[in-house]
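Good day; I would like, with your permission, to put a structural problem before you. A protein sequence and the structure tokens that stand for its backbone fold form the material at issue. The record follows directly beneath this note:
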Amino acid sequence: MRVVIIGGVAGGMSAATRLRRLDESAEIIVLERSGHVSYANCGLPYYIGGVISDENKLYLQTPDSLHKRFRLDVRVNHEVIDISSEKKAVIVRDLLSTQKSEIHFDKLILSPGATPIVPPIAGIERALTLRTVEDVLRIYEAVEVKPKSAVVIGGGFIGVEMAENLVHKGIKTSLIEALPQVLAPLDPEMAELVHQELRKNGIDLHLANSVKEITSDEVILSDGSKVSAELVIASIGVKPDITLARAAGVEIGSKGGISVNGFNQTSNPDIYAIGDVAEKNDDLTGESTLIPLANIANRHGRITADHIAGKKVREVSSVGTAIVKVFDLAVATTGWNAKKLRALGKEFTEIHTHPNSHATYYPGATQFSLKLIFDPKSGEIFGAQGVGRDGVDKRIDVISTSIRAGITAPELADLELAYAPPFGSAKDPVNMLGYIADNIVSKSTEIAQWSEINKFIADGYALVDVRSQSEYANGTIPGSINIPVDELRERHLEINNKKVIVNCQVGQRGHVATMLLRSLGYDAKNLDGGYLTWINSPAGNIK
């Protein structure tokens, strides 16, 4: 059996090496149009910033090493220019010799990846993009001449990583994003924490603004402002590279990628598609989606190899778990965000917490922010987001695993997670999310969101801040009166209103106060996530 694989990075190489482990007799040919295979493309921005100083560290394998260990026929600088499904053959051009050849296959795996989106902006040809090793070397050379200013267009994961690494090189950097926030998978109150970190590190953010024109030394924005730019990097996003899929005549899905089944077969059962080019099944809806992540590509490469080798395969959907480093912050997400749920008309509840990374009495604990989104009736978890300096990754991983396992939000309270003071708390932040969710699902308490404050004020609710006098003096929600939680039993008659929104710093004292007031006959709701969530939200950031 001859298996031809188009694309030799994450998914393609995962499929090739897995197939060899399963079938020693298979002839496996990998065709890669760039000059490199099996490289760490997620590490490319960090090479530009000097965090990864040795270029060779980016190369996980070479054609020679892959042949030696796996007997793979890996051909770099070989571009597939056409596919004949009828003949079961690909037409290949050697980019060094320009010679063409025809290679027949029994099974074909399409893993060409995605291509950068390049909008029709005047002067866009001056912008560099980052996708391959060749791209990173061009950017590296541009950075090494020490430009005084740089503009990154696009505030997605790669754009934010690029901006950070340009700052590491001492370049004055501006980040342009057409949306009101960076990192679209985040909800706005979580994204604001990232905005603060970017600005703190000297990045000039231009949000809700797009690029109108790129000149020889600056970028002109849609609002008419001009930004100095000796170097311009476009990181606007990517789209599936379906050129070869169209040539092969396989079905294109509703999201613009290649339509595949649970085994990554296309409409032609002898042709598979994996990685960024293939549509995935959303774990929460079963609908098609595009998730350009290397870990998913690797997993799907393995599934494809198993299926070709005749091994029993589990069909796996995707929840879209991702994490990115933003200077000292870890920013992670899994599942759906509130924006998407709201657009789809789904009923949901969201809760925010601001726990410490480990026991506060053990040195080095840092506070981070967690958000959980779930069905208020069934408790089904829809998604989660986390932002902080430590402890974010493992909590998001636990919640991502819980989504896959069908664990409900209240059941997070029951998870037995490893605990010792240097690593966590006796009540882990994930457990705390479960306790809060259980209170909501069981209707033991009611919450109000930062976005609802004005609505509740209009409905006649009073705002009661139950923090200490010193905390209150350092900032509060306008219109709030201050009655510390420990004085509330004796002073609650000062409220003069039976409808109350309670807030503390992060929500915990607010919950105690809310339960007390409800027992005393008040219609009391706790401000979810407390003052800390509100002040970092668009509501709290109105100047």
Observations:
- The longest helix spans residues 294-308.
